[in-house]
Amino acid sequence: KSGELVNKRIFEDLIQYNTSQSIRKYNSALTNNDLNQDENWNIIYLKEVKIVVDKIENYCKYNEKITRIKDFFIIRNGLILINDNIFILKIGKELKIEKNEFFLKVNGNFTKLSETEQSRLKKVYKSKSITLYGYNREDNEGYILYFNKNEFKNQSPSKRNKSLEQKYPTLAKYLRQYEMKLREILINAKENPEDLFYPRRGSFIRRLEEGGKEKLVDLEPFYDNSPKIFFKYISSKNIFGYSTDPYYATSDTYFLWPLANKEIDYLFVIAYLNSKLVSFLYKAK
């Protein structure tokens, strides 16, 4: 009841335009002409906050221009698959591992995979695995079945698929079980149904090289061996993960891929992105 009385007094003060320690007032403008150029009309974005933000942004200037993440990185989401339930193999369901040997369930029976076929299985994560400066290695979703179009370059889609089936027979048979469903999804999305073996997005990016020439960059070597910074698509805090080990993730994760000819100090960048300074900017902006 005491809380109700306090609230009642506050509302009475508001109605009567009385001063109160519980009320902070802001002068609003009736027209655009009444606005001060150096102030903001957004009452959430206080003038004191703007002063601090401006000071921080002044330290981020190069050649009189504020440098931003997009000046060093291409920001793209992770792998978009035709169907997660088909391409992500769960241990104990579609996949068995015994003494470092992999067995895949095809037409109701488990078949041993060759070492060549095992190389196409990549441990995959969702964004919930991301932690400050890293990720929870145990919080994986299983193994993604990952084929690379660059492996069979300069071939028509149908010939490329035949080459794939010859090299990876068991993996191809597994996907052929769901061929009708995969083709239907691709057709409905107005995409080539012959691409049923491959990720839809996230395996390549287009990057501008010197001279303004655009290049299609294969991301598999980056996922496997390069330094990577990644973050959740939806998050209330600045939590950025980092890895130099193989790290594949689904589309709810975003990656920072370096622009061409940019020297990146990854340890500095990850420390900055996870800092209280960025947390302040994240909330202020």
From TrEMBL:
It comes from marine sediment metagenome. The keyword Nucleotide-binding does not apply. It is an enzyme of class 2 (transferase). GO terms for biological process: DNA restriction-modification system; methylation. Residues 213-283 form the TaqI-like C-terminal specificity domain. Its EC number is 2.1.1.72. It catalyses: a 2'-deoxyadenosine in DNA + S-adenosyl-L-methionine = an N(6)-methyl-2'-deoxyadenosine in DNA + S-adenosyl-L-homocysteine + H(+). Keywords: DNA-binding, Methyltransferase, Restriction system, Transferase. This is site-specific DNA-methyltransferase (adenine-specific). GO terms for molecular function: DNA binding; site-specific DNA-methyltransferase (adenine-specific) activity.
